[in-house]
Amino acid sequence: MKQFTLRGSADLYLGLLLLFISGVMYWYVSDLEIGTVRRMGTGFFPLVLIVILAGFGVILAVRGVLTKSVRVAPITLRPLLIILVSFVAFALLVDRVGLILAIFAQVAVAHFASDETKPAQSLLFGIVLALLSSGVFVGLLNMPVELLP
C-alpha cells in the first residue's frame, strides 16, 4: 500500500494537532457560561484545559520549527484502514452479538494491521480486554450492555 512522507518534525505536527484539538474543543464549549474565578460557570474548567492544551501546542509547534528533532516516519495507510475497520466492526456488532464477541471480532480484525502480531498475542489480548471491559462496564458501571447473544 502507498506511503505518505511528511516533511518537518514530529514536534511541529504534534503541536498543530494539539492546536486543532483545542480549536474543536473551544468550538464545542463556546456556548457554556464561563463565569469568573470566584463564581465559576460550567465552561470555566474546560476553558482552562483548552488554554493549557493550546499552550502546549504552541510550544511544540515553535520547537518543531526552530530545532532539529525527530523526523516523521512514513505513514502507511494499510494499518490505519484496518484499525478503522476494526472499530466499525465493533460498533456494528456490539448490539447484535454482545460485548464479548464484538471485542473478539474487533481484535481479530485489528490483528491484521501489523505483520509482527502473533495469533496467540491477539487471542490473549482479546480475552483480557473482554474480561476487563465486562467487569468495568457491566459489573462496576451497571451499563445495560449484553455480554453474549
TrEMBL record:
Protein name as annotated: Membrane protein
Organism field: Nitratireductor aestuarii
InterPro entries listed in its UniProt record: DUF1468 (IPR009936)
Source domain of life: Bacteria
Pfam families for this protein: TctB (PF07331)
Keywords assigned: Membrane, Transmembrane, Transmembrane helix
Residue ranges of domain DUF1468 in the record: 14-144
Residue stretches spanning the membrane: 12-29, 44-66, 78-103, 123-143
